[in-house]
Amino acid sequence: MLLFVIALLLGAGAPLRAASDPLKDALRRLQERYEATRTLAAEFTQTVESPTLSAPLVSHGTVAFEKPNRMRWDYAPPDAQTIVGDGDSLWIYQAEEKQVIKAPLGEAFRASTPVTFLAGLGRVERDFDASLVKDGGSAWVLQLVPKKDAGIGTLFLTVRKADASVEEAKITDPLGTTTRIRFSNEKRNAPLDRGLFQFTPPPGVDVVRPPTY
Predict the structure, then answer these.
(1) Which residues pair with 170 in a beta bridge?
(2) pLDDT at residue number 110
(3) Is-contact 153 136, C-beta < 8 A?
(4) Residue 133 contacts residue 141 (beta carbons within 8 Å)
(5) Domain segments of the chain as ranges
(6) What is the rounded distance in angstroms from the CA atom of residue 39 to the CA atom of residue 206?
(7) 60 neighbors 45 (Cβ within 8 angstroms)
(8) Residue 132 — very low, low, confident or very high, per pLDDT cuts 50/70/90?
């Protein structure tokens, strides 16, 4: 689910259909932000809460995106993990387990994991019904409900009115798991090293491919 959040961090595909004025304005601002954004880098904090967990799982790190489908997530220790989308493949590197998962980018973006909302291949207009949950203070809160795959869950976006940036993405799934991702120190349209979006498995690391690869 996380890859589609990336699309929305860049504002991808917000529909301009008839709606109440606040919702229409929020979606229009997301669209304008998307059209004006080429790259984005930020810090993030991710919190996962679930009925099966005794306490919330909190992780943090840095993230970088480049339109339309390149990204990199670096999770800091103790849960170190690197996720790279190079335009063709999605790589998930777990150093402690000496393992890399490699999958076709398009297939990976259909998965219902926290990574899947963020890399710019989805379209709000095609995939979701949007509604305005809150219009108050300095932010809108939007709810995006999948039109087809109920297993993906529901996405709530907190969007700053000042610049239409995404302050927080909250993803809930049918099993009651909630993933919150908060973004800070955001930099838009700054030059990014192309090497960020390339990945070569380190020596001695197993590369695991899904059966469909």
Answers:
(1) 156, 180
(2) 52
(3) no
(4) yes
(5) 2-186+199-207
(6) 31
(7) yes
(8) very high
The whole-angstrom separation of Cα 62 and Cα 55 is 23
The number of residues making up the chain comes to 213
Rounded Cα–Cα distance for residues 4 and 24 (Å): 20
Q: Considering the chain, what percentage of its residues have pLDDT values greater than 70? A: 77
pLDDT score for 45 = 96
30 phi and psi angles, rounded to 5 deg: -60, -40
Average pLDDT over residues 144-167: 81
Question: 3-state class of 35 per DSSP?
Answer: helix
Q: Determine contact, residues 119/105, Cβ cutoff 8 Å.
A: yes
Beta bridge partners of 128: 146
Mean of the per-residue pLDDT values for the chain?
80
CATH 3.40.50.2000 describes domain 2-186+199-207: no
Eight-state DSSP code of residue 96: G
Residue pair 56/72 in contact (Cβ under 8 Å)? The answer is no
Instruction: List the structure tokens of 213.
Output: 């690869």
Return the ∠ at Cα 52 (arms to 156 and 134), rounded to 5°: 15
pLDDT in tens, 96-122: 888 999 988 766 555 433 344 444 434
The DSSP call for residue 117 is: B
